Amino acid sequence: MSVILETTKGDLTVDLFIKERPKTCLNFLKLCKMKRYNFNRFHHVERNFLCQTGDPTGTGRGGESIFGLLYGQQAKYYEAEQVPVLKHTKPGLLSMVNVGDNMLGSQFFITLGDNLDFLDKEHCVFGEVVEGHDALLNINEAICDENHIPYQDIRITHTVILDDPFPDPPGLEIPIHSPEPTKEMLDSGRIAADEDINDMEGKTAEEIEELIAEKEAKARATILEMVGDLPSVDAAPPENVLFVCKLNPVTTDDDLMIIFSRFGKIVNCEIIRDRQTMNSLQYAFIEFDNPKSCEDAYFKMDNVLIDDRRIHVDFSQSVSRLQWKGKGRGVEFVGGKAFDPNKEDYKMKDQPKREQSKRISSDDHPKRYAPQQRQRDFQPRDQYRGGREHREGRDGRDRREHREDRDGRDRREHREDRDRRDHREDRDRREHREDRDRREHREDRDRREHRTDRSDIDNRGRRGGERDHREDRYNRDHREERHNRDHRHQSDRRERDHKERRRSPERSHKQEDVSAQKRIRRSSSPKNSHRTK
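Structure for Peptidyl-prolyl cis-trans isomerase, as requested:
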């Protein structure tokens, strides 16, 4: 037996356990028929646990059974059915709420999680959701306060009974139309179920884009805090530090400090190096004494050529100098503090010795790491002249390497051509030998055939007389056979003419005339005249 619960989140189709819970199913069906569940809101929603409804007051303390409507307050609740035992094992099960002393009224809940075994002995399962699980997921994802009350109302708008096997009890008056909800029922103090929540209403396109970007940035910061990359969601990188990348490996800290010092005072300039080889990793951080100088350098120095390399400049996103002091206690800057435009002492004057020992100035850096650095192949007497000599030497070395590579490639190609030519000549010689062998074999075969033919001719010469005699005898027999055949043919024709002449005299006369004419023509022909002579 099925009932459709139409909610503001979607429709739920419910199958009732009539055989196992007949009294509870009767109570539920008759309450649906009386429209008692219309406009009831889900006043308690716990994610992955349950969602509860069935209280017309929306407080979780009201509601009565169908027997209370028929027989008064003494029958407001009825005793729950406990046999057979039905367990809360999966999402989508409908269960009546136990109001105390194993008594049930009109409130029920729908499970949103698996294996809720602790509810089995207290509440009464009487049905399950068979269709509309997407609506159940929408209810499960509702945003609630600390008391598990949704901020936006979720209500049952209508109930439709597909099949009711129980007869109506005496005195039950079924309303024709759904009753109108009371003001107290609709006034829940929450966002209405049909109210459209739009945070972007009344804002310009720029404000909407800024709001979306802010939400995305906050979400990313929350993820970084969860994985441990950020000490706090509110932590922000300093605004006076530039990030420079795509540097030439030969570029030094002093080079960058001299180039960027025209935009303002530089507090710290450091090229990041490998810890073991101390080779440049080709990116650096430059810290100015105020954000204005940092901003000017960002706009002027991006894509500038330094030591034959186009560098890229951006604002630093590193928060490595931020130290997390603990949950709720914020962060602090290691070795310095945030920039305050109203104060001149941007750098901490009284820094601890431990922090000073950690930070090494650009002048002391070569002295400290000199033994670990690889020897340079040039000694620059002047900064710019040394760089030019190094570039010239590097260009010459590149040209020599290019020539060596080209010569090696030419030699390899020459060897490959020679090998291909030798291979082709060997193949031609093999083919020539094979052709010569075939020609000699063919000549030998022709000579053998010629000798055989000549011996056959000699043999035929000896047997020629006998063969001529046989041929003469065969020709003579053939002539005699042909003469006999012609004689028989002429006799048959004369006999046939005689028969026709006897059947038709006129025709026989005509044929005699034709035959006479033919005989005359034959006798007058030159061949017959020669025979007559």
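Residues 335-362, 371-386, 527-533 have pLDDT under 50 and may be disordered.
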